[in-house]
Amino acid sequence: MALIKFIQQLSPAVYRLTVAAPEIARKHRPGQFIMLRIDGNGERIPLTVADKNPEAGAIDLIVQTVGKTTYQLCRLKAGDNIKDIAGPLGRPTAIEKLGAVAVIGGGIGIAPLYPIAVGFQKAGNDVISILGARGRDLLILTEKFAAFSSELILTTDDGSAGAQGFVTNALQKLLDAGRDIKKVIAIGPLIMMKAVAELTRPRGIPTVVSLNSLMIDGTGMCGCCRTTIGGRVQFACVHGPEFDGHLVDFDALLRRANTYKDIEQKRLAKYLG
Question: Which helix (DSSP H) or strand (DSSP E) does residue 262 occupy?
Answer without folding.
Answer: helix 261-272
